[in-house]
Amino acid sequence: MAAAGDRETAAGVVTLRRVPLQTRSRQRVQGVLDAAAELVDELGPDLVTTTMIASRSGVSVGWLYDYFVDREAIFDAIVIRAMDRLDAAVERSHKHHPGPWPVRISAVIDALAEFYRNEPGYRALWFSPYLSIEMVEAMRRHDDASAPTAVAGLADNGIVLSAVDPLIAFHLVIGIIDKGLDLAFRFDFDGDPAMIEETKRAVLAYVNPYVSPSHAAKAKPRKPRR
């Protein structure tokens, strides 16, 4: 259960000193995260200070500390918020690429790579010394929740995996994608294209043997769940 000063998100809990109850305060908190993420990308996290964040976001340093314990708490909140936005990126990919399942998986990996490139502050913090237990736990919670969603998505499109527990399979698929993108972006700011393509091949090579040919050939999208 979240403490009184915590805010629940899909990825986990963002710890705040105070919960912003008014719309204006909630918007200011989001503005602080936006400003901090911009500064992280511009300067690198080492050079970002709470004074800079407050100035960029148009709040006082005292107001900032009313909601965040320190600069690192702001960094944690940037990454945890990004986990929530990642789901929206994946959902948009599904809508824009409704074809056969290999095309859909490939498109999802492309969407995740684009997220690494464009989500403010995310990449710079994830590959920095400021990667915290809170950030890692948010990613783990997100991955754990994503596997059942992926299995349900396959079922909705008439795809059945045989000779393997689908949930186990997709926990592994998510792990492969996570590691592939980690390697692709760790040393290449834009993501090594060869590593991204190999990540796709690794996922398809793992899943393909478990997909029934009849299901793969005849699968038709079902009506969205309500």
Which short descriptors sum up this protein?
3% strand; disordered N terminus; Arc Repressor Mutant, subunit A; 226 residues; two-stranded antiparallel ribbon; disordered C terminus; 2 strands; Tetracycline Repressor, domain 2; mainly alpha
Description:
The protein folds into 2 domains: 6-73, Homeodomain-like (Arc Repressor Mutant, subunit A); 82-218, Orthogonal Bundle (Tetracycline Repressor, domain 2). 67% of the residues lie in helices and 3% in strands. The chain is built from 10 helices and 2 strands, in the order ββαααααααααα. It has helices at residues 23-43, 50-57, 61-67, 71-96, 101-118, 122-126, 133-156, 166-186, 193-207, 213-218, and strands at 6-8, 13-15. It has a two-stranded antiparallel ribbon with strand order 1-2. Strand 1 and strand 2 form a beta hairpin. The radius of gyration is 20 Å and the shape is elongated.
Give a summary of the structure in a few sentences.
This protein has 226 residues and is mostly helical. The protein is built from ten helices and two strands. The chain has two domains: 6-73, Arc Repressor Mutant, subunit A (Orthogonal Bundle), CATH 1.10.10; 82-218, Tetracycline Repressor, domain 2 (Orthogonal Bundle).
